[in-house]
Amino acid sequence: MTKHNHLAVVITILAHQAMGFVWYSSFLFGSAWVHGQGKQMQDLNPAPLPFVVALIASAAMCYVISWLTRVLKVSSFKGGVGLGTMLWLGLGLPVIAMHYAFLGISWQVGAIDALYSLALASLAGGIIAVWRKPGVAPTTS
Hints:
mainly alpha
Protein backbone atom coordinates (compact mmCIF):
# COMPACT_ATOMS: atom_id res chain seq x y z
CA MET A 1 0.00 0.00 0.00
CA THR A 2 2.94 2.35 0.48
CA LYS A 3 3.60 2.47 -3.28
CA HIS A 4 0.16 3.87 -4.06
CA ASN A 5 -0.41 7.59 -4.33
CA HIS A 6 -3.26 7.68 -1.83
CA LEU A 7 -3.95 11.35 -2.54
CA ALA A 8 -4.44 10.59 -6.25
CA VAL A 9 -6.75 7.70 -5.34
CA VAL A 10 -8.82 9.83 -2.94
CA ILE A 11 -9.10 12.67 -5.48
CA THR A 12 -10.15 10.15 -8.15
CA ILE A 13 -12.79 8.66 -5.81
CA LEU A 14 -14.16 12.15 -5.18
CA ALA A 15 -14.13 12.83 -8.93
CA HIS A 16 -16.13 9.61 -9.39
CA GLN A 17 -18.75 10.81 -6.92
CA ALA A 18 -18.98 14.18 -8.64
CA MET A 19 -19.30 12.46 -12.02
CA GLY A 20 -22.10 10.27 -10.69
CA PHE A 21 -23.93 13.30 -9.34
CA VAL A 22 -23.81 14.96 -12.76
CA TRP A 23 -24.26 11.78 -14.86
CA TYR A 24 -27.40 10.68 -13.02
CA SER A 25 -28.83 14.19 -12.63
CA SER A 26 -31.76 15.36 -14.71
CA PHE A 27 -29.22 17.56 -16.52
CA LEU A 28 -27.71 14.50 -18.25
CA PHE A 29 -29.08 10.96 -18.02
CA GLY A 30 -31.00 10.83 -14.72
CA SER A 31 -34.46 11.20 -16.19
CA ALA A 32 -33.86 8.63 -18.94
CA TRP A 33 -32.24 6.27 -16.43
CA VAL A 34 -35.16 6.47 -14.00
CA HIS A 35 -37.76 6.29 -16.77
CA GLY A 36 -35.97 3.27 -18.28
CA GLN A 37 -36.58 1.46 -14.99
CA GLY A 38 -40.26 2.36 -15.00
CA LYS A 39 -39.83 4.56 -11.92
CA GLN A 40 -40.10 8.16 -10.86
CA MET A 41 -37.34 10.16 -9.16
CA GLN A 42 -39.19 9.95 -5.83
CA ASP A 43 -39.06 6.13 -6.06
CA LEU A 44 -35.26 6.10 -5.71
CA ASN A 45 -33.61 5.01 -2.48
CA PRO A 46 -32.20 8.09 -0.70
CA ALA A 47 -30.61 5.93 2.05
CA PRO A 48 -26.86 6.22 2.57
CA LEU A 49 -26.06 2.55 1.82
CA PRO A 50 -25.87 2.92 -1.99
CA PHE A 51 -23.47 5.83 -1.56
CA VAL A 52 -21.29 3.84 0.84
CA VAL A 53 -21.23 0.94 -1.62
CA ALA A 54 -20.30 3.37 -4.42
CA LEU A 55 -17.40 4.76 -2.38
CA ILE A 56 -16.08 1.30 -1.52
CA ALA A 57 -16.42 0.10 -5.12
CA SER A 58 -14.66 3.21 -6.42
CA ALA A 59 -11.83 2.77 -3.91
CA ALA A 60 -11.38 -0.87 -4.93
CA MET A 61 -11.28 0.06 -8.62
CA CYS A 62 -8.83 2.91 -8.04
CA TYR A 63 -6.42 0.81 -5.99
CA VAL A 64 -6.47 -2.00 -8.55
CA ILE A 65 -5.81 0.51 -11.33
CA SER A 66 -3.04 2.07 -9.22
CA TRP A 67 -1.40 -1.32 -8.82
CA LEU A 68 -1.81 -2.18 -12.51
CA THR A 69 -0.38 1.13 -13.72
CA ARG A 70 2.72 0.45 -11.64
CA VAL A 71 3.10 -3.20 -12.62
CA LEU A 72 2.41 -2.56 -16.31
CA LYS A 73 4.55 0.61 -16.27
CA VAL A 74 1.76 2.82 -17.56
CA SER A 75 2.83 6.42 -17.03
CA SER A 76 0.91 8.53 -19.54
CA PHE A 77 -2.65 9.82 -19.43
CA LYS A 78 -3.41 8.14 -22.75
CA GLY A 79 -1.98 4.84 -21.52
CA GLY A 80 -3.98 5.09 -18.29
CA VAL A 81 -7.19 5.81 -20.19
CA GLY A 82 -6.40 2.82 -22.41
CA LEU A 83 -5.86 0.61 -19.38
CA GLY A 84 -9.13 1.73 -17.82
CA THR A 85 -10.93 1.17 -21.12
CA MET A 86 -9.49 -2.34 -21.50
CA LEU A 87 -10.50 -3.23 -17.93
CA TRP A 88 -14.01 -1.99 -18.67
CA LEU A 89 -14.17 -3.83 -21.98
CA GLY A 90 -12.96 -7.12 -20.50
CA LEU A 91 -14.57 -6.97 -17.04
CA GLY A 92 -17.05 -4.14 -16.52
CA LEU A 93 -19.11 -4.32 -19.70
CA PRO A 94 -19.51 -8.12 -19.75
CA VAL A 95 -20.68 -8.19 -16.13
CA ILE A 96 -23.18 -5.38 -16.68
CA ALA A 97 -24.48 -6.93 -19.92
CA MET A 98 -24.82 -10.40 -18.41
CA HIS A 99 -26.62 -9.32 -15.25
CA TYR A 100 -28.84 -6.77 -16.93
CA ALA A 101 -29.89 -9.30 -19.60
CA PHE A 102 -30.91 -11.85 -16.96
CA LEU A 103 -32.67 -9.23 -14.84
CA GLY A 104 -34.54 -7.84 -17.82
CA ILE A 105 -33.21 -4.35 -17.23
CA SER A 106 -33.73 -2.16 -20.29
CA TRP A 107 -30.85 -1.65 -22.69
CA GLN A 108 -31.34 2.09 -22.24
CA VAL A 109 -30.54 1.78 -18.53
CA GLY A 110 -27.75 -0.66 -19.30
CA ALA A 111 -26.15 1.70 -21.80
CA ILE A 112 -26.30 4.62 -19.36
CA ASP A 113 -24.72 2.53 -16.60
CA ALA A 114 -22.15 0.89 -18.92
CA LEU A 115 -20.98 4.21 -20.33
CA TYR A 116 -20.77 5.64 -16.83
CA SER A 117 -18.56 2.75 -15.72
CA LEU A 118 -16.41 3.27 -18.84
CA ALA A 119 -16.02 6.94 -17.93
CA LEU A 120 -15.07 6.03 -14.36
CA ALA A 121 -12.48 3.42 -15.31
CA SER A 122 -10.95 5.61 -18.02
CA LEU A 123 -10.79 8.66 -15.78
CA ALA A 124 -9.22 6.64 -12.96
CA GLY A 125 -6.66 5.12 -15.30
CA GLY A 126 -5.69 8.48 -16.75
CA ILE A 127 -5.39 10.33 -13.45
CA ILE A 128 -3.62 7.58 -11.53
CA ALA A 129 -1.16 6.81 -14.36
CA VAL A 130 0.18 10.36 -14.45
CA TRP A 131 -0.12 11.22 -10.76
CA ARG A 132 2.44 8.85 -9.29
CA LYS A 133 3.65 8.94 -5.74
CA PRO A 134 6.92 10.87 -5.68
CA GLY A 135 9.94 8.57 -5.66
CA VAL A 136 7.99 5.43 -6.65
CA ALA A 137 8.87 4.14 -10.08
CA PRO A 138 6.87 1.62 -12.09
CA THR A 139 7.82 -1.94 -11.19
CA THR A 140 7.24 -5.48 -12.36
CA SER A 141 6.77 -6.96 -8.91
